[in-house]
Amino acid sequence: MTDGRDRRDGQDRRDEAGRGAGDAHGQRYERGDERDDPHPGGAGAACVAGEGRDAVIAAAWDDLVTTARRTVTDGLVVGTSGNVSVRVGDTVLVTPTGVPYDRLKPSDAVGVDLDGRQVLGSLRPTSELPMHLTVYRDTDARAVVHTHAAHATAVSTLVPELPLIHYMAGAVGGPVRVAPYATYGTPELAANVLRALDGRTACLLQNHGTLAHGASLDQAYDRTAQLEWMCRVWLLSSSVPGLTPHLLSPAQLQEAGKRLRGYGQPG
Predict the structure, then answer these.
(1) Which residues pair with 179 in a beta bridge?
(2) At 236, is the secondary structure helix, strand, or coil?
(3) Given a cut of 50, is residue 6 above it in pLDDT?
């Protein structure tokens, strides 16, 4: 590799052909996808271990901070609530606890291994680290976005599953479940989230917020934003006195989900 920008631009071009509805907008640093790489840890892991490690980490941290700041700008979190992470090889970069995102600098990068041991930086990782690591260990996630989005949090207090108000539920694998409440930062919450994510790439956390994962930060963020939008639509439609919103049937959602998988420009 030459530098982080060259690597990111090259990866953008390679990933362009694979985009679809809800697909990653290009993994700009490394995929680390063991399914496509015969080497343990994936090609990204080899790169991280080699001479380009600093450039790869720097690029990933830059994308993570950009995504975290976007959650604030778009009103999905308030203050230092919520957290964002991205996996680079066997290292998970994650937002630190209690630090406003607009203050984060390149030198503030925080990284842990998949067992939670800190391997990068001096700031303490987010208190929700157990939840992030559980998702990485038990799914194919490469990025995770957790927010306290207002409409989604409101819905989490009302129903055990987001009613099928829109076909975009198909983009996250089906009806969005609500993970039962547990104290933040606990293994119990992490376990509840993992069960709610079975066959899904997003869920609600009861009296808490949202979690979505994806093959990239862009994809995880897009799923988060879509989930908040669906929750808002359901709350609006169900608030009209004397009327009950029409919901999709499971068959209709399944058909929409099939079409969404082929959405976008051909490769």
Answers:
(1) 205
(2) helix
(3) no
Among 64, 180, 85, which residue's Cα sits nearest to residue 127?
Answer: 85
Select which of 34, 128, 188, 228 is catalytic. 128
Which two three-digit tokens encode residue 140?
């194919």
Catalytic annotation present for 188: no
Query: In terms of pLDDT, which residue wins out, 2 or 140?
Result: 140
- Residue 176 token pair: 């969005």
Query: What's the DSSP call for residue 125?
Result: B
Smallest CA-to-CA distance from 8 within 216, 214, 212 is with: 216
Q: 48-78 burial string, b = 16+ CB within 10 Å, else e?
A: beeebeebbbebbbbbbbebbebbbeeebbe
How buried is residue 214: exposed, middle or buried, by Cβ count under 10 Å (0-12/13-18/19+)? Answer: buried
**Tally of CA atoms within 13 A in the half-sphere of 209 that contains its CB:** 23
Identify any residues that bridge with 94 across adjacent strands, giving them in sequence order. 85
Output the CA torsion sign for 125, 131, 137, 139: negative
pLDDT score, position 267: 55
Cα 85 to chain center, whole Å?
8
Is pLDDT above 50 for 151? yes
Taking 70 as the threshold, does the pLDDT of residue 160 lie above it?
A: yes
pLDDT digits (tens, 9 = 90+) for 18-69: 333 333 333 445 433 333 333 333 434 444 455 588 899 999 999 999 999 9
Q: Whole-prediction pTM value?
A: 0.81
Long-range pairs for 181-186 at CB < 8 Å and ≥24 separation?
181/205, 181/206, 181/207, 181/208, 184/127, 184/128, 184/208, 185/127, 185/128, 185/129, 185/130, 185/131, 186/130
